[in-house]
Amino acid sequence: MFKQKLLIEEPSIPILNNSNAFFAKLICAAKGYKPVLLLSKKNNYNNFFYSLHLEEYEKHISRLPKIKTYLLSKYVWLVSYIKCFTLFFGKSIIELTYSNIKYGDLIYDQYLVEYEQATIKKIDSRLAKIIYQCIFRHHIVLSAIKKTKAKAVLVSQQVSIKTGVMLRVAIKHGLEGYLRAGHHESTLQKFTKLEEIYDYEYKPSPKELEKLIKKLGKKINKKYINTLAYQVSGKGTKEGLDAYNANNKYYKSKKQFSNKYKLNNQKANVFVMLHALNDHPHSHFGKMLFKDYYDWMMTTLAIAKQNNKVNWIFKQHPSVYYYSTKDVDYHKIFSNLPKNIRYIDEKNQIDTRSLKHCADLVATCAGSAGFELPALGGIPSIVGGKNHYSGLGIAYEPKNKTQYTQYLLNICKKPPKLSSKIISRARATYIFIYDTSRFPVHYCPQVTMSDEKSANQDEWYHRAVNKQKKLFNKEIKSEISTYIKLIRQKNFYKLTKLDL
């Protein structure tokens, strides 16, 4: 007999649907919840649960009655234009709220994604439309929560208006918010407070990091080497397939790199690791020192043009081709550069491991390079905002934009390597993010970023799942049993290998 319910985000692509169904099974079995699938229209999604034997579930259509939709739409448009109007008088987009919930970061990032922009240059009707989408989604989710009497929600990410709003509304109204991420290697985290929403799912807390360091002891370096090798092999995260692509050039010395790019080998090399500019700069980690990733990139380039005492290498993000931006021409931005500045585009990528030999300092806004390079070669890093290794004592974290600027302007020689203690912490962080925080899910086949973007998933994905079930039936049953027991624990808040 089900007493309470788990509300699950609307189905989308097969890859996400399968993972959501798997985690719905775990949560419902552990907590005694009944799964309720939120639908935007009256489609039959029985196969969403069929393979996981969750026959007893409900479907809730998120659409409101026509007259109520009409009236709500008029009201939301009015509120949206009023909020948009306030932005002309100094209010920041990031500060926008509705019903005492912060939504500005979601609105900003959704604008970048929906219109394929790197930054917001003006306040216009397009922004009002995004605000409308956010507030309307708020009411849809709140209505669904009330009608289904849900106790918890399950979403696949904390960014985007679809899932980000759903998670925040649920938490605000006292529900448990479950966030699952990943695929063949996954994580599951429970949120109960709004201030927790920027706790990135793979980020170790200081307590978790210390626990891991203590557990590994003198085996940290060996474990790190094995974890790195796993990433390089392509068996780990989707991003690793691009960062360590076999076609990427690997440089074994700074001199070799300097000769290739005609740089003064006697100068320090500062690598600026660019972001995919519209990859949710605000809603992943919260506070940043800059307006967005574009502002960070342009500010850092301006600094580089003022400091000719070191070499500056702006390295394009290896997965940038998945994030189209119509308002940026990289080759125009990085044309006519001084002789100490170079730009490496996505077609001429170098293996990230090359930086162990070529880099003396790494600059990123919130990217993984800020802990990966300290772990790889003791290379110091500077960041431009909160990230998934903030507060762990690995990177230099300026308090404001001025500190960031002054630090880079004053770089005139090769900074010292990091201490062995910091390197160990960076390696433990690497292990946690790429191994400890991710537990195996044999029910879900490994996929690439290209697979996730493919339009023909229905043609091959379910065959891949059925193949997994045949090959790993024993492992799947064991994983389901183990994870249910862990989620059932009274103090559960996140699944990690520290618990296994």
Primary descriptors:
500 residues; alpha/beta; Rossmann fold; 19 helices; globular
The SS-based structural class is alpha/beta
Whole-Å distance between the termini?
Answer: 30 Å
Q: What fraction of the residues are assigned to beta strands by DSSP?
A: 5-15%
Oligomer: single chain
- Give me the side-by-side strand order of the main sheet: 3-2-1-6-7-8-14
Enter the CATH topology name of the largest domain: Rossmann fold
In the predicted model, the low-confidence regions spanning at least 5 consecutive residues are none
Average predicted confidence as pLDDT: 92
Task: Give the tally of structural domains.
Answer: 3
Q: Class of the largest domain, according to the CATH hierarchy?
A: Alpha Beta
**How many beta-strand segments?**
14
Largest sheet: 7 strands, mixed
As a percent range, the share of helical residues equals 40-55%
CATH architecture of the largest domain: 3-Layer(aba) Sandwich
**Can you identify the CATH superfamily of the largest domain?**
Glycogen Phosphorylase B
Shape descriptor: globular
Helix tally equals 19
Nearest-angstrom radius of gyration? 23 Å
